[in-house]
Specification:
The chain is mostly beta strands. The protein has one domain: monomeric porin ompg (Porin, Beta Barrel), CATH 2.40.160. It has 4 helices and 12 strands; from the N terminus they run H-E-E-E-E-E-E-E-E-E-H-H-E-E-H-E. It has a 12-stranded antiparallel beta barrel with strand order 1-2-3-4-5-6-7-8-9-10-11-12. A hairpin with a 4-residue loop joins strand 10 and strand 11.
């Protein structure tokens, strides 16, 4: 049932803003931000990006174990004016311009689960496995300038395991306006108690099975974070990208026995062919 509710909300948001969107001048990308995939080259119709990336990241939220993993990269996109519909990995979504300074994004995807085997050191033993679930993600960016040099960002995640929100500021570097170059975002993240305990809580049954102290978290501040994105065109068809993320947990999260580290980190690089 939640899947259909999320889909209905997504379609409603798209219809509302599609009818109010303002006409834009022709451009090669929807907005000149390296973090926003746009393979359409400014043209309406279908566009495809296919590639592969390598990610070095925490094994699970709060883990002090890291691993290297290959991931598919790219997306299938369809552009109509200032709207792009896309399918990327396990997510289906839409993004569009409300005007020159508002970028909106809505998607339905999967929230990653957690398995006891994610820890090679056995630190999740007795906690049980968490299955993947649906999540609805809504994001808005409001630029202070016409060339998207500085902006505010907000993101809301509604899932079967609680809710999370992110707020921050960003800056783009370089003179390019074709989606290449680099950007950085500084953010803080809050979550409700359900979301917090899904990731870092330990109930009575889990405590008995794992030997970890029973832990119940309240909602509120989750973390402060910084993320960096880079993108460069090698030629008209090939591009490379890089990304890095660092998230420093709040004191309540750090006190959880599941949080073996005070932070979560990720670094990724990849290559994409567009056609």
């Amino acid at each position: 049932m939640k899947k259909f509710i999320y889909l209905a909300v997504l379609l409603f948001i798209h219809t509302t803003f599609n009818n109010t969107a303002l006409a834009q001048e022709d451009k090669t990308v929807l907005v000149p931000l390296p973090s926003i995939d746009d393979f359409t080259k400014g043209e309406d119709g279908w566009a495809f990006g296919l590639g592969v990336g390598l990610e070095y990241e925490s094994a699970y939220e709060g883990s002090d174990e890291f691993g290297l993993e290959a991931q598919p990269a790219g997306a299938v996109q369809w552009r109509s004016g200032d709207n792009i519909y896309y399918f990327a990995g396990e997510a289906f979504g839409w993004r569009g311009l409300l005007n020159d300074q508002w970028l909106l994004d809505a998607l339905i995807g999967f929230e990653e689960g957690r398995e006891e085997s994610d820890s090679d050191d056995g630190r999740l033993d007795g906690l049980g496995n968490q299955e993947e679930g649906y999540e609805l993600v809504l994001q808005a960016r409001r630029s202070f300038t016409q060339d998207w040099r500085y902006w505010l960002v907000s993101r809301f995640v509604a899932s079967e395991n609680g809710n999370l929100a992110l707020f921050g500021v960003g800056r783009r570097f370089g003179e390019q306006t074709d989606g290449t170059g680099s950007e950085i975002n500084l953010v803080f993240v809050v979550h409700d108690s359900e979301y917090a305990n899904n990731g870092f809580g330990v109930d009575a049954m889990q405590s008995a099975s794992s030997g970890l102290e029973e832990t119940n978290l309240s909602g509120g501040l989750r973390s402060f974070g910084i993320d960096y994105n880079y993108r460069q065109n090698l030629n008209s068809d090939w591009q490379i990208y890089g990304e890095a993320l660092f998230e420093y947990f709040s004191s309540e999260v750090r006190d959880s026995p599941i949080a073996r580290s005070d932070y979560e980190a990720e670094v990724g690089v990849g290559v994409i062919y567009t056609f």
